[in-house]
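Continuing from yesterday's entry. The apo prediction looked reasonable, so today I'm repeating it with pyridoxal-5'-phosphate included to see how the binding region is handled. Same sequence as before; SMILES copied from the compound registry.
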Amino acid sequence: MVFKNSIDLYKKAVELVPGGVNSPVRAFKSVNREAPIFVKKGQGAKIWDEDNNEYIDYICSWGPLILGHNHPKVIEEVKKIIENGSSYGLPTKYEVDLAELIVEIVPSVEKVRLTTSGTEATMSAVRLARAYTQRNKILKFEGCYHGHSDALLVKSGSGLLTEGYQDSNGITDGVLKDTLTLPFGDIEKVKEVLKSKDVACVIVEPIPANMGVIETHKRFLQELRKITEETGTILIFDEVISGFRLALGGAQEFFGITPDLTTLGKIIGGGYPVGAFGGKKEIMDLVAPVGRVYHAGTLSGNPIASKAGFATISYLKKNPNIYKELEEKTNYLIDNIEILAKKYSINVCVNSMGSLFTIFFIDIDKVENLKDSLKSNTKNFSIYFNTMLENGIVVPPSQFEAHFLSMAHTKKELNRTLEVIEMAFKKIGEKSGK
Ligand SMILES: Cc1ncc(COP(=O)(O)O)c(C=O)c1O
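Holo prediction written out below.
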């Protein structure tokens, strides 16, 4: 495979943009490549790069494209309004349509505010929780990623883990002091911390997907709900990834647990920039202009993004079988990956929830939290990534991210994926002398 055009673009980009990319994981640094691929177009389960290489895609824009690239229904809806104008800084019907659908589907959401990204959604939800409870401290879990606002960039996952650290520079001691962190799943420690009743909120990815996928135990979320209720602490489910993916109503519907506030993003924009935070009316009505918790945005609730999100969610609502089908496809891959791992004597642990999965190259049965996930053999992951890429399959360029499946992935593509995984495992087995 030739990557010349991508390499040339990267050389130019690094002179203009820090690291040549607008989001760190895209640089492919942790998987030891000279340059990332620069994408030209996508269709269904595939993307093409600037050298015209074709790939089966397991990034799917990191989650939004549950229907696959360029889904005709989404394009049709976007086309209906794209020539009318792009953004007005005034309300549009499309924001109301999307809000109505979110309120109808997501159990905890009685009122919702649209933002432009997931980062803004989580940042505003935390501010709202602080205003509502009149408390300063917040609690998050190690390895969970909630975007890049100051308060949430502590013991964080995703790109930070990929780059080999967990806390960003440039955050004041005051902010750091107010963000408490605990290992995911450790309910006894949570109970201890919340006892003092000075924590505004607990924010959690109900299925963590930013330290690799962690298979959440329902009991942990149930106990989290109970203890937050008992201590007057706001429970925020960050469903930027799991919303409309694990089930139509997200992880809260899947587990039957209702948080006080929910943050959303990705799927609700159908591939366009969007985010949202919502919850009980009583709390949401503290947001300006009703209350004095300020949130605003020039492009918040952008009409094109709202229309694309509305089209995507409407499609999911009309075709509820999608979730079962996605899980079946994921399980088909995973079952075969486990067989291949045995065949080549490779140590792997595959974690999955719905249509998300991570192959940890690791010698333990289950990866339950960040401490476990950090034990992964990232050298083996790198061999895996590079073998996949050089044979036409794009997987996340990091051990600490999720593979995303879409409705557009066919059996033929899954089988081709397994063929290449076999090549990768064979190489890993040979390198480790097995
Ligand atoms: C769980 C979670 N929350 C928040 C965010 C931040 O969203 P955005 O990248 O749209 O700012 C992400 C991004 O991947 C995420 O995975």
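Comparison notes:
- The pocket of pyridoxal-5'-phosphate is lined by residues 62, 117-119, 122, 145-147, 158, 205, 210, 238, 240-241, 265, 275 (CB under 6 Å).
- The longest helix spans residues 321-343.
Will overlay with the apo model tomorrow.
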